[in-house]
Amino acid sequence: MEPLSVQEAVIVNQMLDVEESMLGPDVLDGLTRTQKELPPKYFYDARGAELFDQICDVPEYYPTRCERAILNQYAADIAERTGASELLELGSGTASKTRVLLTAMDDAGTLRRYLPVDVTDDMILRTAAELVQEYPGLQVHGTVGDFERHLGRFPAPEGPRLIVFLGGTIGNFAPASRRRFLKAVARMMCPEDTLLLGTDLVKAPAVIEAAYNDAQGVTAAFNRNVLHVINRELGADFDPGGFDHVAFFNREEEWIEMRLRAQRAHTVHIGALELDVEFAEGEDIRTEISAKFTRERLAADLASAGLELQTVYTDADERFAVSLSRVKRAT
Ligand SMILES: C[S@@+](CC[C@H](N)C(=O)[O-])C[C@H]1O[C@@H](n2cnc3c(N)ncnc32)[C@H](O)[C@@H]1O
After folding, report:
1. CA-CA distance, 295 to 314, in Å (whole number)?
2. Burial of 49 (0-12, 13-18, 19+ CB in 10 A)
3. Is 310 exposed, middle or buried (0-12, 13-18, 19+ CB in 10 A)?
4. Strand order in the sheet with 255-262
5. Is 41 in the pocket of ligand 1 (CB under 6 A)?
């Protein structure tokens, strides 16, 4: 794969090959199920990434504020405990909270390289260009890729790594695939690497539900964006305005479900798939789950992946957790 250089940053795009695009197969698979479903990674084209950033600023969306507060308080401790010289970030987005960690590693004198990974190429390019300016001497090696498929394609480590997965994104996996994913992350970790994981915690359902139903309607626009992506990329004729945004806390599963609910019975044609999809009035497409964690669930998931929980940092109200773990040593 030809790397593309942005000043001192190197970006490798793993998504360019035609066979790498899973959008068509995923949409075909998801929209022909009895319970229609779409994977959340397709929210994030340039517009979706912008909308996610706006979600982080709405008053109801506590996860970003809580995670940032935790990082502000404990970044120096994290830098000291891990001694990491490289920060590899899965689903890096705009890396706005990551800068707190990079600064702490810089202050500790260990920071050498930042390796962001995201499906959105705009994000990787913009973030890389900004960070080489903000941290003189920092090497940036970005990967435009899918962390579910490309974990083995990142640059080889050149020192102890802090592998960072923020924003509660781990909650977007269903429980069994979440544990499989953590196992795959553990397999790529060296003994000196540390995983820093952000997880949203179980709390009063009203607080959680408000966060996904903001009054300004930014989350609703973000939710509908997946239909714009499918229209553009697969020649579909979804009317995004004909679907209502629905988000509720599933108390049994302890996760948020985001759905798009058809306002009327109609048929959508998806040109690239030569597929007609029938919707009944009130029928839902599930577009995201966002699992909420207890400490027990977090520890059990990590343990089942062969990881040992070392520290859990939380905010003052225990709304969100950021944890450090390492690969369990063979005894
Ligand atoms: C919830 S946002 C979190 C962004 C940022 N880490 C934060 O904490 O604010 C999820 C990020 O992961 C990226 N993403 C989602 N699924 C992905 C996948 N399968 N592979 C790579 N990146 C993915 C999205 O593009 C987005 O930037």
Report:
1. 11
2. buried
3. middle
4. 36-37, 284-291, 255-262, 243-250
5. yes
pTM as predicted: 0.95
- If one residue of 114, 118, 150 were mutated to test the ligand 1 pocket, choosing by the most ligand atoms within 8 A of its CB, it would be 118
CA of 63 to the centre of ligand 1 (A): 14
Calculate how far, in angstroms, residue 121's C-alpha sits from the geometric centre of ligand 1. 12
Closest C-alpha to ligand 1, atom 20? 146
Residue range 242-295, pLDDT digits in tens: 999 999 999 999 999 999 999 999 999 999 999 999 999 999 999 999 999 999
Nearest to 323 by CA among 194, 205, 204: 194
pLDDT score, position 38:
98
Contact 147 CB / ligand 1 (< 6 Å): yes
Q: Is the CB of 169 under 6 A from ligand 1?
A: yes
Which tens digit of pLDDT belongs to each residue from 26-54? 999 999 999 999 999 999 999 999 999 99
Instruction: Output the CA–CA distances (angstroms, integers) from residue 288 to 64, 152, 169, 173, in the order listed.
Output: 18, 26, 11, 9
Alpha-carbon dihedral 276, 281, 286, 290, rounded to 10 degrees: 160
C-alpha to C-alpha distance for 118 and 135, rounded to whole angstroms: 20
Distance in Å, CA 200 to ligand 1 centroid = 15
